[in-house]
Structure formats: structure tokens, C-alpha cells
């Protein structure tokens, strides 16, 4: 009971603190320079303080994303309509740098039940310019849409293809080290991550290895040409090889009673011991228009003598986006990612339309009654609209239509519809 009260208290403190920061940010805008120490303070969009020579800095910010999902068919166990409202993210961020060459980032994510979890806790050294070395807890670098912050992706949830293997770009509550660098038209990164509770028979932690390379001959807002290549491998002795997907709707797992997370390949404990993935990414943006696509392949190797066959997972997506009010999506070569849309009219805001198609296929997923192996597939269409009311507020609405092959809920449904709504405040 005391532990629960403590968690609730922490959550309330976060909420009150966040509101205080937001109110102060709106009440006081601009830059103030003290008449004593050479410190610049900014209160527009969070709170930031830095020495004039940029040797030291501190920034307090965060994001709140409140979601509502309505879904039916294969999205639920019984096929009937269900809905869920929840905080997708409530993150408090502290970041900055010290002695010019050291950077730090701490992001704490608060859940609905009052618990909290480190979304990131890292320290980086930038003295080897243009190379950056980062250590701590952070997401491995794999994929264009994953590299783009959840604040600025064009759909509410990231692509279904990432359900092919979450380990390729998820920290898995472990620790890691990453070396990255930007030069000319190139960006690249290489990292090693040790996931929590992934140990070999001797008790030593197994590792995940990531490589990502990006070339962007055009790399500015409204003028982007981007190509990327990814590779990931994890050392593991035994895993079940299960593949499942939310089909683009997070509420299916937030709804513990009737939400359905379709299984495209069932878990077979002790049957698999090899796991690799690679991916391709491409994007083009011209003015308010952008198109991007990613391909991901994961190869799951069955153990020698296993009753299972090797599994191959293929996923791809194509996304089109257009800003009706004329603004371009931001882009950063450092990190190889898209960034925020900044509305030019603070009264009207910026309005963006988006369409995405996702396809995820598992080859030799499972066996039928005759012991013949069969393939499974999921296809999802997403149509959405985003309203960037200002630099802090974003409202998003998505309609999703899913269709699966050889995958059904308990009532035999192999298709479903969903509507998702998000209110976001960034400070």
C-alpha cells in the first residue's frame, strides 16, 4: 500500500511540475540575460539555461500524449467494438552539456498506474568531432521512422513493420554504447546493447549489435533526398521466435480484457537460436510534400535438429504526406531523421494529411494439422490528419483498416477497423 501511494505521489508531482512549467513558459517568453553571471535563460518551450560561451547548459522539457482508440474485428478477441483511453507517453526530460564536450540526457516516462521507467539515461562525449560516443540506456539506431521522435512522426503509431522484431531498435531495458558521426552528406552509427535478462548458459549477458548508414544529398526542410541501410544481430542461445503485432493500434494491449494482439507466428520455446535483421530506407521531400518507404527483413534460424523450419519475416511500408498550409517537414542529417513541422500561421496552425500502407509477412510461420508449414500476412492502411496548432500543441486523428491472411481472432475475424485520436503537448 505504501509503495502504491509513493508511486501515485510521484505521478502527481510530475503532473503539477509539468503544469507549472507550461504556465510559466506561456507567461514569460523570450531571452533574459542576468546582470551578474554570463547566463542566458529561455522560457519559451520548456526551461533552458546556458552560459554565453556555451560551456554549460541545462534544459527541462517533456511531452504529454493522451490517446483514445476505438477498434473492432480482429483488433478484439470477440470481434465486437471496444475502446480505450490512456496516456501513451508522459515524459519528463532533462538534458544539456558540460565543459563544452560532454552531453547528458535523462528522460523519465510515467505510466497511468503511477509507475515510472527510464526512456533514456545517457552521457555522450563530442570532443572527437565529428564523432560522438554515447553510453547508457537509449534506443539502438535502426530505421528512419524509429529515428524520428514520436512527437513528429506523421501517424500516431510507428509502422507495423517494426513488430517484426522489437529488439532491433529497442533498448530492452539494458545498457549500451554507440559511436556516431556526421560529415558532408553522410551520417552513420554503430552500437552494442546489452538487453536486460538476456544471458547465456554461463550467466554472461548476450549482446545486440546495430549498424546504420545514411546518405542524404539533400538535407534541409522541404528539400530532402535520403537513403539508408541498417543491420542488426543479437547473440542468443534460445528464444521462442514468436511474431505478433498490434496492427498499428496501441489500445489493443491497453485493453487487457478484450484487446487482441494477433499472433503471426506462435512461440516455439527452445527451437530457435539465430536472429539477424537488415533494412532499407528512402525518403524524398519537396516543399510541403514528402514520401518515405522502409523495408525490413528478419531471419530467424531454427536450431540444428529442430522440428521447426527457419523463419523469414518481411515488412515494408510506403507513406505519403502533404501539408495543406504549405509548411515543410523538418529534417536533421545528424541522426538521419525527420523533425517538426513549424506552423507559419500561429492562429491557423499547420494542417497535414498522411496515408501509409504497411505489409508484414512471415514465411514458414507455423504448421497446420498435416504438418505442412504455411505463411501468414498482415496488411494495414492508415489515413490521417494532423493539426499543428502551434509549436507545442499537436492533435492527430487516424483511421486504420487491417486485413490478415491465416490469422484470426477467437471469432474467426481476419479484418478490422480502428479510429485513433491523440492530443499532444510538447514543452
UniProtKB/TrEMBL annotation:
This protein's UniProt keywords: Signal
Claim: Signal is one of the keywords in the record: yes
Region (Disordered): 250-270
Record bears the keyword Signal: yes
Top-level lineage group: Bacteria
Gene3D superfamilies for the chain: Porin
Leader peptide range in chain numbering: 1-29
SUPFAM superfamilies, per database record: Porins
Protein name listed in UniProt: Porin
Amino acid at each position: 500500500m505504501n509503495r502504491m501511494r509513493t508511486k501515485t505521489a510521484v505521478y502527481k508531482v510530475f503532473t503539477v511540475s509539468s503544469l507549472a512549467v507550461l504556465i510559466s513558459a506561456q507567461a514569460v517568453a523570450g531571452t533574459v540575460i542576468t546582470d551578474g553571471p554570463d547566463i542566458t535563460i529561455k522560457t519559451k518551450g520548456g526551461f533552458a539555461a546556458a552560459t554565453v560561451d556555451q560551456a554549460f547548459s541545462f534544459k527541462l522539457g517533456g511531452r504529454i500524449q493522451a490517446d483514445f482508440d476505438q477498434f473492432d474485428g480482429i483488433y478484439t478477441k470477440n470481434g465486437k467494438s471496444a475502446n480505450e483511453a490512456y496516456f501513451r507517453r508522459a515524459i519528463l526530460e532533462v538534458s544539456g552539456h558540460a565543459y563544452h564536450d560532454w552531453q547528458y540526457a535523462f528522460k523519465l516516462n510515467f505510466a497511468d498506474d503511477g509507475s515510472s521507467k527510464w526512456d533514456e539515461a545517457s552521457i555522450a562525449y563530442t570532443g572527437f568531432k565529428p564523432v560522438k560516443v554515447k553510453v547508457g540506456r537509449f534506443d539502438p539506431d535502426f530505421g528512419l521512422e524509429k529515428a524520428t521522435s514520436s512527437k513528429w512522426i506523421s501517424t500516431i503509431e510507428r509502422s507495423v513493420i517494426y513488430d517484426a522484431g522489437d529488439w532491433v531498435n529497442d533498448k530492452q531495458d539494458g545498457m549500451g554504447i554507440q559511436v556516431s558521426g556526421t560529415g558532408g552528406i553522410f551520417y552513420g552509427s554503430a552500437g552494442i546493447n546489452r538487453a536486460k535478462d538476456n544471458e547465456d548458459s554461463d550467466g554472461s549477458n548476450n549482446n545486440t549489435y546495430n549498424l546504420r548508414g545514411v546518405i542524404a544529398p539533400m538535407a534541409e526542410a522541404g528539400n530532402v533526398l535520403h537513403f539508408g541501410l541498417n543491420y542488426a544481430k543479437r547473440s542468443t542461445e534460445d528464444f521462442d521466435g514468436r511474431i505478433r503485432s498490434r496492427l498499428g493500434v496501441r489500445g489493443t494491449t491497453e485493453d487487457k480484457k478484450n484487446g487482441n494482439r494477433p499472433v503471426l507466428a506462435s512461440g516455439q520455446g527452445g527451437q530457435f537460436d539465430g536472429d539477424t535483421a537488415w533494412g532499407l530506407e528512402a525518403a524524398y521531400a519537396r516543399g510541403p510534400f514528402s514520401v518515405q518507404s522502409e523495408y525490413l527483413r528478419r531471419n530467424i534460424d531454427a536450431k540444428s535438429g529442430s522440428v521447426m523450419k527457419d523463419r523469414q519475416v518481411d515488412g515494408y511500408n510506403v507513406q505519403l504526406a502533404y501539408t495543406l498550409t504549405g509548411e515543410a517537414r523538418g529534417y536533421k542529417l545528424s541522426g538521419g531523421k525527420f523533425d517538426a513541422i513549424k506552423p507559419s500561421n500561429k492562429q491557423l496552425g499547420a494542417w497535414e494529411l498522411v496515408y501509409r500502407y504497411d505489409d508484414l509477412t512471415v514465411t514458414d510461420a507455423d504448421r497446420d494439422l498435416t504438418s505442412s508449414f504455411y505463411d501468414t500476412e498482415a496488411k494495414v492502411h492508415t489515413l490521417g490528419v494532423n493539426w499543428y496548432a502551434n509549436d507545442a500543441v499537436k492533435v492527430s486523428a487516424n483511421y486504420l483498416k487491417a486485413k490478415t491472411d491465416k490469422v484470426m481472432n477467437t471469432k474467426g475475424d481476419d479484418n478490422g477497423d480502428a479510429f485513433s485520436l491523440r492530443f499532444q503537448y510538447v514543452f
